[in-house]
Amino acid sequence: MSLRGGGECPVQGLALSWLLKAAILPAAAHAGTALPTSPRFRTHRFIHGWAGIALAALLVAAPAWGFARKAKAPQDPTGASLEATLAGEFALQAGKLDEAAKAYLEAAKAANDATLAERATRISLLAKDNRRAEQALALWRRLGGDPIAQSAAQASLALRRGDEAQARRELAVLMAADDGWQQVVGVLSVGARDPEQSARLLKGLVDDGAIPPKLQAWLAFGGLAQKLDQDELAERIVDEVVRRFPGEPRVALLRASQLREAGKPDEARKVLAELNANPALAPELRMLVASEYDELGDFPAAAATLAQGPQDEHTYALRASLLARSEDKTALGALYEELRRDAGKPDPQRRLLLGQIAEFLKRFDEALEWYRGVPGGDQKWPARLRTANVLHELKRAPEAYKSLHDLQADAGAPEEARRDAYILEAELQNRDKSPDGELDAYARGLAAFPDDPEILYARALGWERRDNIARAEADFRKILVADPDSTAALNALGYTLADRTTRYQEALELIDRARAAEPDNAAIIDSYGWVLYRLGRTEEALVELRRALSLQKDPEIAAHVGEVLWELGRKDEARKYFRQARELDPENRSLKRVLDKLGLDDIGP
User: Fold this and answer.
1) What is the rounded (10 degree) CA torsion for 420, 421, 426, 430?
2) By C-alpha distance, which of 415, 386, 419 is closest to 403?
3) What is the pLDDT of residue 15?
4) Within 10 Å of residue 375's Cβ, how many Cβ atoms?
5) Mind listing the pLDDT tens digit for each residue in 444-473?
6) What confidence tens digit (pLDDT) does each residue in 147-205 have?
7) Which of 96, 511, 565, 585 has most Cβ atoms within 10 angstroms of its Cβ?
């Protein structure tokens, strides 16, 4: 299943169905993707719309801090390290990071293996075992390896110990290396003890003039300052970038983003308008301008930006999505009429898009005609799924279910489409308030696709919705039997146990397994912070939750930060995060739940 996060810019390479699912498509399954129905399940919160696109495109991804889950066999002819290596792997698989760190360090010592020493270092850092991390790192340095990666690990270790002087020395080594600044961004993003520490070190780098004279580096550090909520520092960096790289459009985009984050939307719009007025602006940069308008909540301006220049199915789809999100049915209707004039040829992608727009406009009969007119290609299968949804909207439920049954039985259909037909049938049965029908659809789907993770995951959400946590857990565990390394299932199950039971230690071990695979995943860090909170480790929890929010602005994470601050008696600060969560999504389930729990009717403007 798709996980939130990843390397490429979310604008580029997204399928049509991805672009439209949050805005045009209802919350039902569609081609190739089973949409989650609960925001609790952490790694399955997808980026809806364009959130964060401009910043993500400006930043250069820092090297990943994860590590391969399976250890390389040590070069040890005596086999003295084999038992320790296996013990380490088993401990890691069980989410026992302390035991894994100890075993891997023993294995590295026995084998004199640099790879195992590196692994022991990283696991120890993840386990917050500073003493063992120091031993493993010393061994790793003695055995050789990548000195840049070692300096990054040493900097993280120094930060964890609170030795900022040593951390600065290591960061200086990194900054002096070719492209070592990327490692520095990684250390300050996920390796520091807390966001305030990262901010102090970032300010020191700027004060010392240590940032290299490269546009990408300045953009990355400017973006990091924004993520850390350091408005003054971000503005200072932006001013310096403007001075160093005058006339560079990406700098203007960073300026607009910084102004938006600083609560100056009118000034941000002025910068964007000046950029937009340039007819020679590259198409990819114009998309980023549109995404900044989107971040400002100005969907019409975003759509108007994309309407400039040559159009293709990609830009048409984005414009449709933006107009749908703004609920501007007049403008969306005009776009629909524009597109349908050129729809005489049997273009599958165009007809699928027209069907989706017609569906959003509630022109269900027209939508049905467009979907049924998709002649073939990859678009045929989402069109068949959407046909069922439209029939259901037209109150023709028997026909909707028959169309899904036909697709399920179509031997010529891709397995993914057949599988999604079961998931969509279950969703429609849920809409019809037929729990027996929903469960029957899942059961038949699993009979056709035994232990399919998508179906199991969807059914687990259904069980959780009914407060049947035992059965939700059973389905998550079935996924893990087939794929023990599924970070989605590990995190979802761990979060569920932390949120809905008192089995906090077990939840922690599951989440730690997910952290070992993806230590810089904001959703997983949020789950980690949440289970720490449930364990009563409130101060630690706040650090992790704020780290998660610095990595991704998300309403559920913001609500968690607010709840922990409220618990600590910092109520005014808590209200700030509740307001942030409301701005991101006023209907967020976690936000509503915590406000109800605390009896908060008014969190201020």
Assistant:
1) 100
2) 386
3) 25
4) 12
5) 999 999 999 999 999 999 999 899 999 999
6) 999 999 999 999 988 899 999 999 999 999 988 999 999 999 888 888 889 999 999 99
7) 511
**What is the residue-wise DSSP string for 35-103?**
--S-TTSGGG----TTTTHHHHHHSPPPPP----SSPPPP--TT-TTHHHHHHHHHHHHTT-HHHHHHH
In the block, which residue shows the tokens 């659809």?
Answer: 441
Please name which of 256, 260, 308, 251 lies closest in space to residue 282, comparing C-alpha atoms. 308
* Beta bridge partner(s), residue 30: 33
Give SS3 for 501.
coil
Chain-centroid distance of CA 192 in Å reads: 21
Alpha-carbon span 584 to 98, nearest angstrom: 37
Structure confidence at residue 238 (pLDDT): 87
| Positive or negative torsion for Cα 70, 103, 527, 477 | positive
Average the pLDDT over each of 50-59, 239-248, 510-519 and give the range with the smallest value.
50-59
Among candidate residues 297, 195, 208, 313, the one with its CA nearest the CA of residue 551: 195
Share of the chain above pLDDT 90, in %: 63
Residue 119: band (very low, low, confident or very high) from pLDDT cuts 50, 70, 90: very high
Spatial neighbors of 287 by CB under 8 A, at least 6 apart, are 11, 53, 306, 318
Task: Tell me the C-alpha distance between 250 and 247, whole Å.
Answer: 9
Distances in Å between the Cα of 422 and the Cα atoms of 122, 447, 452, 598 are 42, 11, 11, 40
Please count the other Cβ atoms lying within 10 Å of the Cβ belonging to residue 193.
17
Distances (CA, A) of 418 to 385, 408, 463: 9, 5, 22
Residue with tokens 């340039």: 278
The confidence score (pLDDT) of residue 522 equals 92
- In the 8-state DSSP scheme, what is residue 338? H
Confidence of residue 75 (pLDDT cuts 50, 70, 90): low
Tokens of 361: 């406009």
Helices assigned H by DSSP within 245-347: 249-261, 265-276, 283-295, 299-306, 313-325, 329-341
Q: What is the mean pLDDT of the chain?
A: 85
Between helices 415-431 and 435-448, what is the axis angle to 10°? Answer: 170
Q: Kindly report the CA angle at 182 between 518 and 123, in degrees rounded to 5?
A: 35
Tokens of 244: 């160093």
Please compute the mean of the pLDDT values over residues 368-379 and round it to a whole number.
93
Within 342-396, where are the H helices?
348-360, 364-372, 380-393
204 burial via Cβ count (<10 Å: 0-12, 13-18, 19+)? middle
Tell me the three state secondary structure of residue 126. Answer: helix
pLDDT band at 83 (very low <50, low <70, confident <90, very high): confident
Long-range contacts of 526-529 (CB under 8 A, 24+ apart): 526/42, 526/554, 526/556, 526/557, 526/560, 527/42, 527/491, 527/494, 527/495, 527/498, 529/560, 529/564
pLDDT of residue 22: 30
Under 8 Å between Cβ of 483 and 489 = yes
